[in-house]
Design brief:
By secondary structure, this protein is an alpha/beta fold. Helices cover about 50% and strands about 15% of the residues. Strand 2, helix 6 and strand 3 form a beta-alpha-beta unit. The radius of gyration is 18 Å and the shape is elongated.
Length: about 230
């Protein structure tokens, strides 16, 4: 349905191509041991995963800083689990998490064949709210950096998705118009509604089993992209 109109495809990275939850779990499996934290990984993640999503929402909405995000998402877990950890250990774990996260590079199923397929006919780009130094390492270490022309991150833009400026910046950097551009991402608010407000077409990768909606088409496996492009 997009074959006749689309020239450029913009992807989100985390939760869309790069399997954030799986790689994050493997990272915590390592650093909990390194810091001698005697909390089971499953117990830790049960609290951390929703807390992290909530703090990222606050970060997108400019209600907390990057430093507050990194500290509070860990502090919240230890407080809820009634596990005493000093601020110095939390701060070091925050650093170690960022340092180790891009060493684990599982991609969502069908990421590579879909990128190979698309790259022969379209220009591909990234728009991410993630931190620049971490996102660049993820792209490089996972072996998908070569597919992307422009990589736009929120630190570069000075704003975060769904702010229209980051989507307009991406168009300007790519030298393309919104009406010939497609955004593919997992977050309805940040990726889909944000891009559509600027005039992009959009395709929602439903990585979180969200309910159906009428904003745009939805897919549950990246291989489904081939039926649209």
């Amino acid at each position: 349905m997009y074959r006749e109109t689309i020239t450029d495809i913009f992807f989100d990275l985390d939760h869309t191509l790069w399997d954030f939850e799986r790689n994050s779990a493997l990272t915590f499996e390592k650093i909990l041991v390194d810091h001698h934290i005697s909390i089971g990984l499953d117990d830790f993640l049960q609290v951390y995963v929703p807390a992290n999503l909530e703090f990222w929402k606050m970060y997108r909405e400019e209600r907390i800083t990057k430093e507050e995000l990194r500290y509070q998402r860990l502090k919240t877990v230890f407080d809820k689990l009634h596990y005493r950890v000093s601020d110095s250990v939390i701060n070091q774990m925050s650093v170690d998490y960022i340092e180790n996260l891009s060493n684990f590079n599982h991609l969502f199923p069908n990421t590579l064949p879909v990128l190979e397929y698309l790259s022969s006919s379209y220009r591909l780009h990234i728009i991410t709210n993630g931190f620049e130094e971490v996102q660049n390492r993820k792209l490089k270490n996972s072996g998908i950096e070569r597919f992307f022309d422009q990589v736009i991150n929120s630190e570069m833009a000075g704003v975060k998705k769904p702010n229209p400026y980051i989507f307009q910046l991406a168009l300007n950097r790519a030298g393309v118009e919104a009406q010939t551009s497609l955004m593919i991402g997992d977050n309805l608010e940040a990726d889909i509604q944000g891009a559509m407000a600027v005039g992009y077409h959009a395709l929602h990768f439903n990585a979180h089993n969200e309910p159906l909606h009428e904003h745009c088409k939805m897919i549950h496996d990246l291989i489904e992209i081939k039926s649209f492009l």
